[in-house]
Amino acid sequence: MGNPLVIAAVGEVGEGFIKERDVGDLCQAQTQHVFCFDWARENIDRFETPTVQHLQIVIPALAIGFVVAFALALLAHRTRWLQPPLLAATGILYTIPSIAFFFLLLPLTGLGRDTAIIVLSAYTLQIIYRNTILGLNNVPAAVKDAARGMGLTQRQILWKVELPLAIPEIIAGLRVAVVSTIAIATLAVLISAGGLGTQMYGSNLTFPTSIIIAGAIVMLMALAFDAGLLLVQRLTTPWRRAARA
Amino acid sequence: MSEQTASSVRYEEATKRYPGASSPAVDKLTLEVPAGEICVLVGPSGCGKTTAMRMVNRTVEISEGDVLVGEDSVRDREPAQLRREIGYVIQQIGLFPHRTISENIGAVPQLLGWKKDRIRQRSSELLELIGLDPELGDRYPAQLSGGQQQRVGVARALAADPLVMLMDEPFGAIDPINRERLQNEFLRLQAEIRKTVLFVTHDIDEAIKMGDRVAVMREGGRIEQYATPAELLMAPANEFVEDFVGADRALKRLALMRVRDIHLWEAPLAHVGQATAEVRAKLDSPDVEVPFPLLVDGERRPLGWLSERDLGAAVVPGRPDSPLGPVLELDAVMRDALADLLQHETQYAPVVDHAGRIAGVLSVEIISEFLGSPEAKSDEHPAVERPHG
Amino acid sequence: MAKGGAGMIGQLPLASFTGAIEFIFSPQESNVTGGKKVGGFDKSMELLIKHLEVTALALAIALVIALPLGLYLGHRGKGEQLAVGLGNAGRAIPELAVIALVAVLIGVGLPNVAPVLAILGIPPILNNSYVGVSQVDRATVDAARGIGMSETAIIRKVELPIAIPTVMGGIRSAAIAILATATIAPLAGVESLGDFIINRNVYGENGLLAGAILVALLALTIEGSLALLQRRLTSDGLKVKTA
Fold first, then answer.
1. Given strand B72-73, what is the order of strands in its sheet?
2. Quick one: DSSP state of residue B264?
3. Homologous superfamily, domain B9-85+162-256
4. What residues make up the domain containing A147?
5. Residue in chain C nearest A183 by alpha carbon
6. Which ipTM was obtained for this model?
7. How far apart are the CA of B335 and the nearest CA of chain A, in angstroms?
């Protein structure tokens, strides 16, 4: 505790994180302990705003990421030669660590939520794009042949046959994207975008209870979204359940 | 059942050239398929038969020449619209996995804008027609067997009452037993609905069985002979056709006959609970053709053969000693019936009608008697008429 | 220029990047620390190497733990819940929390941080090695068993080569995840390129951007190298289609 290197390393990052931690007498005896229940009980509502902020970053990022990746996948599905370059491009956006990406964008878009949303959307592009393409490619050739021979137009084949059958793969990609994004959004604190990272940074860096609670909320949020998407998949693909029966 | 008459199909020097290929896949094909007939395109792999078939609904675009359905060129139509009027059945079936059976069958009607009620009614109609339990309509393709799926494939093609049906090795992916059954059923169906069918196969036996007319093709879609199955067997046009048809032409002629065409023997019938003395009396009768009693149920459906031991009891037992063995259908093609008899090494097999009721007994002896008869030896084979209905 | 990020907005983007590039190569007068020069090529390289070191160390630990385990479980076909579940759970772990907790509860410095970073790398390696091996056609494995190969030989000579694309995919994911988290390792007393980013009162805005650029380039290089390695390791028979 009180490692000079750690404390000196923390610069001011602007608004969004609590400068003073109101511990008072609560955890004095327990400062060495990992988790201070008393403090947790008393201060649980200070996690509300960061949680809301976290969602305000994550949800737009996923929405934008999905729409863009999906559109790119539809484009690449029709124009095959686009597939490798798009895969590479989205791959680059995925490989660049989000932290670095946040700061690379600073000169262009400044501090705050917007930068976080842009970076996080870019991060999700590859997985959603790749899985959508994979799902579309996995549609059995015989089904497409029959659909075409029966008189469905290209567009009808895409929307009525290929996409519905690709749903499991698309949602699989979406689930990975969602979980990763929720975890990475904690770093948004570094560019003053708020979020649950605020409870893990600044003066909170040395207060495990806060870190643990915030971390737990992040993971629960990820779990909830993941389960929700799984449910959506089950609901939209009744034929897969029937096959198992 | 048909609301519109089927159309003829005519190829007029239809040609398909693929870029980079040295010769056309289909070269100036000229062929006419009369309305209401099954025309089989048969030939070795790569001869262009599938390509030729696909030119009709433009899943393969025509390079030169034309294909007419009825009096209209297919080139004048918008492809998707054209295809909705043509039934399309492929080997791997291609049912939509994410749609129920009813929805699969109703796919084209839906595209054509039929009302929901009419679609639903049509689906159940067709399910019945292809011999499936209407309950299956709410299941998904993955829950059906291969044979059932293929039937649904045919029903789907028939749903919008098309002018023409295209069938590309439709029974190729099915096991031989079910294939025979499906072939028989399709022929039974065709007798009722009389569609114009272009049927592609590489199997000459299937071609002879199914076709009103058969076109034997070689590379480039060149027709070596276009004739009825009987003509093909009795008067092959050249060496290629002769080789393709095979050396066992005489035996193949059995494919032109049905079991119902021949005079079947009768076996004495026994019912469960009947006094065995009665059955013995029948057996002892001088004009008994089959020396074994056949156990049947109340509906005259065969259950098994009775042995001496069975007859030892006072009353006919419910479960006979000898198993039933192969049961043949009246509508089965004679060649298949003979194959079944030989394969199971049985001397006698009960023959049933489409409801499963006993109609007689067939034996190898009957067939060989027939083959040796003056009737069979004549060139004017009486079974030249396609045994429909 | 004001402290913190506010000053960034005032600069033109291009100017920022030029400033950052300069920072990488030659020591700059820092306005913040009152005249002492910071940055420059030597310092950049020093931190880059430190970043690589901690990444490599953590990756090695993760590999040693997760790779054999994943291959074994995949081969036996057991423990799918563990391998896949851990893979999913691992993705949900916020790296900031991990680093912060290490710093507070365990202690600062490389010996403490490296194993914890390894924890972030274990889920993708475990998940992908399991999936890669378990998806190898059982018929192929049976054939190998049939000709008398021992179980370990089967893993080494049959399953692993076939599973290489998937397994390498997991290793690449792990490498990038560890590399990314190493960026905030300075919070736990381990030097890395993140120093430029986190200690902005020392290195200034140019340092901040320079750090970000270096991390991005390093990540792309590592990913590229591992991709090439994957291609070398993948037998030609498997190179049917790109991912």
1. B26-33, B9-16, B64-69, B72-73
2. P
3. P-loop containing nucleotide triphosphate hydrolases (3.40.50.300)
4. 47-238
5. C94
6. 0.82
7. 32
